[in-house]
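DM from R.C. (forwarded with permission)

"hey, sorry to bug you on a friday — could you get me a structure for this? deadline for the figure draft is monday and I only need the backbone to look sensible"
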Amino acid sequence: MTDAPPSATNTVMDIATASAAVSIRDDARARAILRGTQRLLRSLNFESLSEVSLGNGRRADILALAHDGKAWIVEIKSSIADFHADQKWHEYREYCDALLFAVAPDFPVEVLPADTGLILADAYGGELVRDPPSHPVSPARRKALTLSFARTAAMRLLAQVDPGVKME
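My reply, with the result:
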């Protein structure tokens, strides 16, 4: 038991959890899942960006937009420990028409929520093994997502062309 105020205790716990998550995530494995997932999304006629900021301050692993404007958010999990350490994905639902998890083929998929889509992926490709349930976003949110996607893509392209440009 501690005499610290609850807010201080929560802050320490949040920092400890965040630090653990950094050491839990297998970056090479996550990059492989990202690559395969983005290849799959492209084959499904979605364009995608990784690490996209959302209106609630969270950052989606992948935001994908279809030709008809549908928005999918894909959360990458590189290990069971990564899944248990990071539960922010609940906050992504209001920013997409469908929420999916992308994991490696050897991931124990039974721990993932059944009310999300499921992608199995490696560095060479992916497979949509469970279609995501649809929960359409409002027109205003769709417009904001589309603008955020376009601006993020434009800023990243500009940074490739002119690495000296200041991004804010």
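R.C.: lifesaver. Confidence is low (pLDDT under 50) at residues 1-23.
me: no worries. The CA atoms of residues 25 and 82 lie 5 Å apart.
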